[in-house]
Amino acid sequence: MRIFLFNGFLLLVFVVAPVPDVFVNSSKSAEIMDQNPLPNTCRYITANSVLEARCFQLKSQTIAMLDLNPDIQVLNITGSLLFTLNNDSLHLYKELEFIYLRHNIISIIRKAAFANQLYLQVLDLTNSFCRILPKSLFQLPYLHTLYLGENWLTDRMFNVNVTSPLRILQLSDNKLRVIPNIGLQPTLLNLNVSNNFITSIRTEDLAPFCSLNDLDLTGNDIRFNARSCDCQTFNAWVKLRQIKMKPKLYKCPYSSALNKTCANVSFSNRTYELFNECLAMMQQMIEEDIQQKMEKDIQQKMEPEKPRSVWLIFASCVLVCLFIVFVTLFCVHNWNRRQCRKQQEQLTMIYNNTELNTELLQQQSDNN
Ligand SMILES: *[C@@H]1O[C@H](CO)[C@@H](O)[C@H](O)[C@H]1NC(C)=O
Ligand SMILES: *[C@@H]1O[C@H](CO)[C@@H](O)[C@H](O)[C@H]1NC(C)=O
Ligand SMILES: *[C@@H]1O[C@H](CO)[C@@H](O)[C@H](O)[C@H]1NC(C)=O
Prior knowledge:
By secondary structure, the chain is α/β, with parallel strands linked by helices. The chain has helices at 2-16, 19-35, 203-206, 230-240, 256-261, 269-367; strands at residues 42-47, 50-56, 74-78, 84-85, 98-100, 108-109, 122-124, 145-147, 168-170, 190-192, 214-216, 244-246. It is built from six helices and twelve strands. It has a ten-stranded mixed sheet. Helix 3 (203-206) links the parallel strand 10 (190-192) and strand 11 (214-216). Helix 1 crosses helix 6. The protein is elongated and about 165 Å long. It binds 2-acetamido-2-deoxy-beta-D-glucopyranose (NAG) (3 copies). Residues 87, 110-112 line the site of one 2-acetamido-2-deoxy-beta-D-glucopyranose (NAG).
């Protein structure tokens, strides 16, 4: 049994050893392809072992026709005439982490266009005439950066359940009238809604983004109710949360009476509620993250045990083999010795016998 294990181990060594070569070959082939650009002006670039397909001024209107390497992690088709993203456009490319589609004319994106992009982290659709985004885009598990500036997106597009761990949401130069109502986003750090049509903003709009660092609201005509403390309240929240806002703070309508009543602003219960829910969600995410890391650590600690146990089996195999060899040699040696002694005894017996016989014969002859 152990010897089988040992053989298995040897086999494994011979099977595993050539694998790195295979990887080297694949990156080599990418370099070779790099020297021969594909007819449709795409080329491959490998940097830090990340494979990128970069295409320039494509005339073809669908990505599906490009027939690219299915292992690409980056797809870069900026400044082309891409018109639609069909359900099958990106279907083949399941390893994509970055998709750059700036400066295209992608007015049609089908519902399942990003359905296969389980590893997508960054999507850039800046300035691509987008009106509609598929809802499933906002549920991709690793998507953290969305560049959607300079499109025709309306509030309706953000009436979705966002479960992606969004960190950067760039929505400048669109057609928004309110801050996107995308629910609790504990990971969101950067929200850019400059140059939209936003006319009002409340603390409740920002409270669901409890990690928000940067907020760009320039280029919106935001007005506050001049007879309430809304403006002071909003500014106070931005200050309290230390959000870097553009413009820095709003100039609030002034009257001595209002200034007195607004001196001690208080935030609405809803604001606190949303903010605390966001914090709780963040806490939960951190705990899950720590647990995952710990599980990974435990797995990693377990893994080195495997080679060690393999070595133990290997060493014990060798010892057992040596022992068997030793024992057989010893036995053979003993057997040989015994055999020798027996032969010697037989020889001496024969010798004695012959001596006796000769003596007897001699005696007989003497007697005769
Ligand atoms: C794309 O996929 C969605 C969802 O699976 C489906 O409802 C739709 O009909 C598909 N569109 C096309 C053009 O195949
Ligand atoms: C928001 O986007 C606009 C347009 O791209 C850009 O000019 C501006 O610097 C961005 N704001 C921040 C805070 O990054
Ligand atoms: C807000 O919460 C406080 C304390 O929990 C409560 O007394 C108050 O009635 C609440 N206000 C509103 C408007 O619900």
